[in-house]
Specification:
This protein is of the alpha/beta class. It contains four helices and three strands. The protein has one domain: Rossmann fold. Helix content is 45%, strand content 15%. The protein has a three-stranded parallel β-sheet, sandwiched between helices. The longest helix is centred in the middle third of the chain and has 10 residues.
């Protein structure tokens, strides 16, 4: 599905973000070359608290909620 979206919409994965509430979302992002954000809403809180130390792929950012994720994406960079 991701490969199809890249082709159909000319997405540059290296400039993209994947926001999700499960480790699989983080892993997808990192394997695809995108940045990953884990939101602590939904399944995210339990996923992060109980399982994050065992994850092979750690999120680039852990957000309290979707609004926090958006603020991180839109933050000024140097």
């Amino acid at each position: 599905m991701l490969e199809r979206a890249v082709k159909e919409h000319a997405i540059d994965l290296h400039r993209s973000f994947v926001v999700g509430d499960r480790h699989g979302d983080v892993e997808l992002a990192q394997r695809a070359g995108a940045r990953s954000i884990l939101v602590r809403t939904g399944y995210g809180e339990g996923e992060y608290l109980w399982n994050a130390p065992k994850w092979q792929f750690q999120p680039d950012f852990v957000a309290a909620d979707l609004a926090d994720a958006v603020h991180w994406i839109l933050r000024p960079t140097k």
